[in-house]
């Protein structure tokens, strides 16, 4: 029977968006969780949807579910109030993190499982 290595990491850490303060807390959490969720204020959903789906019809339901690399953070960091997310792009690229942006507005940072050397 295969047993997975014992992981000391939390399955997920949830943070509420507080701009610079939230961004500053994330580097220390990268080794503590397999996933970090940043809950954004609800009023960002409309702007996020249109930034990630620029050609969507105006009447389309603004339901977001986009996954990719940390470059997604660079795309949404151009939104007023989310600029600080840009500071995470390089670090999360190095960590090989996957970023998912969903509705209600939330940024999910998924870190790779400990698979190197195994």
Describe the protein in words.
This protein has 118 residues and is of the alpha+beta class. The protein has one domain. Helices cover 25% and strands 19% of the residues. The chain contains four helices and five strands; from the N terminus they run E-H-E-H-E-H-H-E-E. The protein has helices spanning 20-29, 45-52, 71-76, 89-94; strands spanning 13-16, 35-39, 65-68, 98-102, 106-110. The chain has a five-stranded mixed β-sheet. The longest helix is centred in the first third of the chain and has 10 residues, at 20-29. Residues 114-118 have low confidence and may be disordered.
Number of self-contained structural domains: 1
The tally of strands reads: 5
Note the gap between the termini.
16 Å
Main beta sheet: 5 strands, mixed
Structural class: alpha+beta
Low-confidence stretches: 114-118
Strand numbers in spatial order across the main sheet: 1-2-5-4-3
Which strand-content bin applies to the residues? Answer: 15-25%
Assembly type: single chain
Characterize the overall form.
globular
Average residue-wise pLDDT: 88
Tell me the Rg in angstroms.
15 Å
The tally of helices reads 4
Q: Could you give the order of the helices and strands?
A: EHEHEHHEE
| Approximate helicity band | 25-40%
């Amino acid at each position: 029977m295969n047993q997975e290595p014992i992981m000391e990491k939390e399955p997920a850490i949830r943070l509420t968006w507080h701009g610079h303060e939230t961004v500053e807390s994330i580097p220390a959490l990268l080794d503590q969780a397999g996933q970090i969720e940043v809950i954004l204020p609800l009023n960002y959903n409309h702007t996020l949807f249109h930034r990630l789906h620029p050609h969507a019809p105006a009447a389309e339901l603004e339901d977001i579910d986009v996954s990719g690399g940390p470059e997604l953070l660079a795309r949404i960091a151009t939104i007023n109030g989310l600029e600080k997310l840009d500071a995470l792009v390089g670090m999360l690229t190095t960590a090989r993190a996957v970023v998912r942006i969903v509705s209600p507005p939330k940024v999910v940072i998924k870190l790779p499982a400990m698979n190197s050397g195994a």
